Amino acid sequence: MTQSVTLDDLDRRLVHALQVDGRAPFSRIAAVLGVPERTLARRYHRLRSALAVRVAGLVDSARIGMADWFVTLDCAPDATETLTSLLAQRDDTSWIAPLAGGGRLVCMVRTPAPGRPAGGPDGGRSFFEQLARTPGVRDVQAGCVLRAVAGVGGWSGRTSALDAAEQERLRTAAEPARSAVGGDGGAGSPSTGDADGAASSPGPGPDPGPTAWTEADARLAGELARDGRADIRHLAEVTGWSASTTRRRISRLRSTGVLHFEVDVDPAHFGAPLEALLWLDVAPGTLPTVTEALAGHAPVAFAAATTGRAAVFAMLQCRDAGALYEYLSRDLGALPGIRGAETALVQRRTKRAGTLLLPERHSSPPKRAS
């Protein structure tokens, strides 16, 4: 992310609006925010070009037979950078973060769900076996995500710029547009603000079933991971469907919970530059109480119940070290059933949600870990 970019109040309102609906046309957002459509389009494309803000399309792993894992790697200090770069280039990784102090990094990995075929040399158990054999890796600890318990729908720290009425107007306005075109209403482009091409002719096209996950869906998801607001015509070319079929498919995947959109933006732009990871050992009987409380804690950007030695894994965003101490000692310390906690500070984020994007001046590291 680019640290030289500063977000003003309108930028933050735009970010919040995109978290409500990542593919909302700029015309709809402009009507709610009370600013010209072209102003919003220019704002977004300027921020996205600077890698400061973007919308990423994300798939619910469990709904397509996959599983997410939070993986902690203990590695030789001189191997950390190479391993980080190698993992960042994989399509099945996200949220990659070397930890402060050196020698450790954490990432999220997607594999076929336990009990399903690996589906290739990089899938399932073979991925972890391959990772353990990678030069410089000393230890691998993996926890499978059982359920996301906090931060679903976006971190509250960046979703406070719009009031409840404005958010409801964004959601309500989306329904007629979706009904009229059979799709999601469109993602804005600089010129028209309607990348889904509502004026395009319907045209016939194959329409996959509501739950089947096809190769075309995977191509669609890959493009949306790179750019959640990609033009509908481009997405149609990638999938081989007509524009109207592509629009309907996006709408169906969203309505069934398979696909959602997340605004990828550095929390430092919202006054929370310090990121920490938290592993909690929680008594099983108090797990519902603890996770429900975490969902209401402002510093918790994301949390999930997982397998492994820690029952809960969480990502925290704080103003500084003092604020982190206050949260751990006061809010977290007041929860019942927490038998132990481990924290680690994030040195930096190499990859967040969606596909890795690099400024043009950066060279691309190798594609795969070996």
TrEMBL record:
Extent of Low complexity compositional bias: 189-202
UniProt xrefs under Pfam families: AsnC_trans_reg, HTH_AsnC-type
Superkingdom of source: Bacteria
Keyword Transcription attributed: yes
Cleavable signal peptide: none
Keywords: DNA-binding, Transcription, Transcription regulation
The HTH asnC-type domain, residue ranges: 7-67
Region (Disordered): 166-214
SMART domains named in the record: HTH_ASNC (SM00344)
Molecular-function GO terms, alphabetical: sequence-specific DNA binding
Any single biological process term in GO: response to amino acid
GO CC annotation: cytosol
Protein's name in the database: Lrp/AsnC family transcriptional regulator
Upper taxonomic lineage: Bacteria, Bacillati, Actinomycetota, Actinomycetes, Kitasatosporales
